[in-house]
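Lab notes, practical 5.
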Amino acid sequence: MKTRKKSKYKHTLINKKIYYFYKITWLDICGDSGWASKSEFDKFMPSRMVSQAYIYSKDKKLLRTFSSHDVDDELFGDRNVYPMGCVVKLEKILI
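Output from the prediction step:
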């Protein structure tokens, strides 16, 4: 009988599928409707954000995450979809 190796990463099991928990660093758009000098404008940068969530799916274009789920059903909450161009870093969380 084959035994499954225990994962060292934080995860959840939903309907026989494992979803891993990640720290996601991403860039968020910043906007301003006020007046600014050239030097102020040159310093204006996107915000560097951090989120923590389970990764539902990932491909070359999109990262889909959730933070809540139903224990008895395949229902997901606190969902987000990130364009991969905004994602700076993905770090799998250790237990």
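Observations recorded by the TA: The chain has a mean pLDDT of 94. Residues 11-30+37-92 form one domain.
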